[in-house]
Specification:
Low-confidence stretches of chain A: 464-469
Strand content of chain A: 5-15%
CATH architecture of the largest domain in chain A: Up-down Bundle
Mean pLDDT of chain A: 93
Oligomer: homodimer
Protein name (chains A, B): acyl-CoA oxidase
Number of domains of chain A: 3
Organism (chains A, B): Luteipulveratus mongoliensis
GO biological process, one term (chains A, B): lipid homeostasis
Enzyme class (chains A, B): oxidoreductase
Structural class of chain A: alpha+beta
Number of helices of chain A: 23
Main location (chains A, B): other
Largest interface: A-B, 75 and 75 residues
CATH topology of the largest domain in chain A: Butyryl-CoA Dehydrogenase, subunit A, domain 3
């Protein structure tokens, strides 16, 4: 660690830097690393053992309410997850299922009776549980789940039932081997009729580990990755649980058997429930971001000493990272990892503000909650795809060595894969982002023309995100400086870069809103479907903009000096590589001249060359504990 | 199979259609499918067992010389490989190592004494062998291998030795468990000095399977994929083999201990030797192409019945392949699979012409050989990346189900991964393509200006490929029709499409040649390195052009009717999706107006919609044996 890398690390660490430092020093590699080549049974046993050991060490308590023995705050649980993601990802997902999904659902969807009864045992690992949402027939469209939970007034019980083969719960983590209890999402039905999807606590195994009567447990068996996670299936045949097992924070059945809820609208109630579970997506985004960083650390360290092919007239071969093509593979992705990391910190802070112990609630928070959900959904999609692609590119950049299990990339790549479709399919999530943006839009509809509306929406969203900081004013200042001189300003002008991101996001949203405004009852699906690529673009560019703003803000807030100067160039590389990827859009929309468009590519190449001497500093600044990078190729050749 | 899909299948099958049909009907699924979840030891045992069974069934004989018991022709071995690639890829690679790399090297680099001694046992699987090229320190730069083969005139033996840790042979298939013998590539040294890299037969295990004295065999252990392939390491400590073990087709040591070769230039000799092994790359390209097709068949069949989310006003949910975003993921990739398949057929035919039993040899063939190598290198890179990306997209398009081993995509994805860096790292191969093009260039240098030279080179290359057919004349006719009316011609005008591919390839090559022409002894590396992204673009666009021409030619040669009409649209989708991907380039270089550029995207969307009703026909036409698609999600829901 140099002074520069340390200073940058502190910036990347963000608000929970102390916790990150604690985890770096406290966790031993053997506590969270996996072992390649074990059988599925061995992997599962190892992961369960590690999970219980981490629970013993107190890691299960992070983020739970203090009054039940929890520790630290809600945001801290996301940060701990990010740090644990530098270890084995099967273990990470198992931790996420137990403490995040299962424990989180009991906390957020349940009430005091559930908290006092179960949280202590969940944190300690004494009670292992599943999160039973997905069904064979329904992954993304959770509102159409088919499992039923029917209230029986005669016994005050609720009957859980799987009516069809497509209603079987599947891909459920912890199910095949460990869970004693599951949070089951099902259509709640009383005498009055259906009330939409609700969650209930359903015991699934007895103390000896056998399935309880009426519960059929299956094993999803071998998967493309995450071998240590015991994904499985649950089917219920008229299984009865006490009414008290309904997680009743948002809807309940009173003593007279009548359904009661503070939220009358079934649709709104459903999305409010789901909204309280937004942490899962925050964690998946953060965890996959960590994986990308670890892969980059391995590939960059290897590329910094691996030699292949001699330059004309040279006897010694060239270090592969001195090749432009190699830099092109790794450095823009490193810059993007920085950018996403800083954007991730902001959503984690925002999550703590809105969902942490001190959250105020109320109308204003509802608006902020929607903004958070939109941002989290998009950032999860963008980060998981970034991670998948980055790990793959790193694997290829390491050649055959990258394919060997000992060099860690293969398992990471296989594990991260599923992050792109679980906790929300990425394509569906981006549509959710667009829907969020367009909803804001609709509410401002009135007589405004689309351009004016986009201005308002985009301002509102930006302000929502940075209102607690002086960041927005800073960003606005940079933007204002850039206005009106697009083609004259230097490519490394931050204001110009920000303006390009803003224009891309605003224009795509504005035009998609115009297209969709023509929807009538009869053509709605056709119209929406025909614009789907445009909708996805609007969502992605919106997220890109948010990410760029997070990076610009963080650099601007640094003290002048070599660390800031270095970060400034990394930020420019992120910005220009993103603009370069969308060159066609900028050209088509007259936002870049052809001359300037070519200059962008030249400048990306130049920045790669400029950053080349600093790559190890930039990798060190990621703060990945050295003990977790066991890949022999990442070791310095002198070591 | 409908008449249409059958007609298209025959076109895709190409020259070895009969062999493909034979394999389709003859091979039982259990002969070539793998089993998910087995341990590495079980996978290896299963793969060895399957390999020996296939050898018993005669599959090892395909492509070997008839006089030693071989069967069919050289090109046929590539086609058989493509068909076997619909099964387990560990088995495929194991077959490739035994019969292709090991057997191929003995055939092509050895002479009669090696053929008569070993080929029968190689074909029958009695003699299992390795191909010992890659070393720890040298993967791509094979000329710098460090293993030595020193001739000892006292005993007429050659001493094989591993002088350093970086000289250890590694990632060698068949090494860890099965090989009794290895073709070892080493620096051949006689009293006169070094003669560059040569190949030798080195026994490595005794009959009981123990390493022979002086040979240290290691196990690469668990990998990111290909669990059934026993990759391992060889280190040699002064291991002596008879002089006769030198594979002496291109260089020998005579009885007086003097090195003799028909090719004086060491560099040329080395590349001539490697050139005879070009089949390996043909196979890897073809095999990965098959994998992409199988993944598309699974994802498209699932997407054709999986439903998720209801359209407004509809009770039933929408079939996911009716969504534009889903079509966008799968259909352009299906079109590209068609295109690559047809281009692959051409290189296979070309390989047979130049390397088959009837090959003439001579000057003309040397030029053709260089053209073949260039084309094969590029097609291998483009196809393996296409396969990797396609399988991944298919996995995601199938959601959580795509991640389950039973649905076959995960293992394929993990296995195909390494195809991007073995048999030549893709990035290095694309540079080889560019080098090939620029060499032609240089030879035509003289006083011509670069544009005129590119015209000549590109004409020559195109003619080289299609001279045996009337295809070139056809292509030229389509091109001529399109000239001079770029912006007026319809987007589905084949001539215009071809012209866009031609312009992109020619212009990138022309400009990169101009840049590199400025090279002096002092700036050569800097200049080349600074242009590396440009060099890679020139290579890739050249291959894209060749692929497009293969598709256009095949469609043009079909009889008029519904099959041709359908193929015509698939070809347009391939063309326009490729143009769309490089929109920025076409805009920057004034080859597309912004209006037309947007129209390209709209037309890609339109073609996806047009082809949507025909997807199952197009999948059937791939001719993948149904028994090899065991993924439950690919079964029709009524089945």
């Amino acid at each position: 660690m140099t002074a520069v890398s340390d200073e940058i690390r502190v910036v990347l660490d963000g608000a929970w830097g102390d916790l990150r430092q604690r985890v770096r020093h406290e966790l031993k590699p053997e506590q969270i690393l996996g072992e390649p080549g074990q059988s599925v049974a061995e992997q599962r046993a190892r992961v369960t053992r590690q999970l219980l050991a981490l629970a013993d060490a107190g890691y299960g308590r992070i983020g739970f309410p203090a009054q039940y023995g929890g520790e630290l705050d809600y945001g801290a649980s996301c940060v701990a997850f990010e740090m644990q993601a530098y270890g084995d990802l099967s273990l990470l997902v198992k931790l996420g299922v137990q403490f995040g999904l299962f424990g989180g659902a009991v906390t957020r969807l349940g009430t005091e009776r559930h908290h006092s009864a179960y949280l202590a045992d969940i944190m300690s690992g004494k009670l292992l549980g599943s999160f039973g949402m997905t069904e064979v027939g329904h992954g993304s469209n959770v509102q159409r789940l088919e499992t039923t939970a029917t209230y029986d007034p005669a016994t005050s019980e609720i009957v859980i039932h799987t009516p069809t083969a497509s209603a079987v719960k599947t891909y459920i983590g912890n199910a095949a081997q460990d869970a004693q209890m599951a949070v089951v999402f099902a259509q709640l039905i009383t005498n009055e009729g259906g009330h939409g999807v609700h969650a209930l606590l359903v015991p699934v195994r007895d103390e000896a580990g056998n399935a309880l009567p009426g519960v059929t447990i299956g094993d999803n068996g071998v998967k493309a990755g995450l071998p240590g996670v015991d994904n499985g299936t649950f089917a219920f045949d008229q299984v009865r649980v006490p009414k008290a097992n309904l997680l009743n924070a948002f809807g309940d059945i009173d003593d007279s058997g009548t359904y009661v809820s503070d939220i009358d609208n079934e649709n709104r109630r459903f999305f409010t429930m789901l909204g309280t579970l937004v942490r899962g997506r925050v964690c998946v985004g953060g965890g996959s971001g960590s994986s990308a960083k670890k892969a980059l650390a391995i590939a960059i360290r290897y590329g910094d000493h691996r030699r292949q092919f001699e330059a004309p007239g040279d006897e010694q071969e060239v270090v592969v990272l001195d090749y432009l093509a190699h830099q092109r593979k790794l450095l823009p992705r490193l810059a993007k990892s920085y950018a996403l990391s800083l954007a991730q910190n902001i959503v984690t802070e925002r999550l703590e503000e809105l969902h942490g112990a001190g959250a105020a609630g109320g109308e204003k928070d509802q608006e902020a909650q929607r903004e958070l959900e939109t941002r989290v959904a998009g950032l999860k999609a963008v980060t998981t795809w970034h991670a998948l692609e980055t790990i793959q590119v790193c694997r290829e950049a390491c050649g055959g060595a990258g394919y060997m299990a000992e060099n860690q990339l293969g398992q990471m790549r296989a594990d991260v894969d599923v992050f792109t479709t679980f906790e929300g399919d990425n394509t569906v999530l981006l549509q959710l982002v667009a829907k969020g943006l367009l909803t804001e839009y609709k509410e401002l509809w009135g007589d405004l023309d689309p351009a004016a509306m986009v201005g308002m929406v985009s301002k509102q969203i930006a302000e929502g995100a940075v209102e607690r900081t002086t960041g927005r004013a800073r960003l606005q200042k940079m933007l204002d400086l850039a206005k009106g001189r697009d083609d004259d300003s230097a490519l490394d002008d931050r204001g110009w870069q920000l303006s390009m991101f803003e224009q891309r996001a605003d224009h795509t949203l504005e035009t998609v809103a115009k297209r969709l405004r023509k929807a009538t009852k009869d053509n709605a699906f056709q119209l929406f479907n025909g614009a789907q690529d445009h909708v996805l673009l609007a969502a992605r560019t919106h997220i890109d903009r948010i990410v760029m703003e997070a990076f610009a803000e963080a650099v601007d807030a640094m003290e002048d000096g070599p660390a800031k100067a270095l970060m400034d160039r990394v930020c420019s590389l992120y910005a220009l590589a993103s603009i370069e990827e969308d060159k066609a859009w900028f050209l088509e929309h007259g936002r870049l001249t052809t001359t300037r468009s070519r200059a962008v590519t030249a400048q990306v190449n130049q920045l790669c060359a400029d950053l080349r001497p600093h790559v190890l500093t930039l990798v060190d600044a990621l703060g990945i504990p050295d003990g977790l990078i066991t890949a022999p190729i990442a070791a310095s050749p002198g070591a």
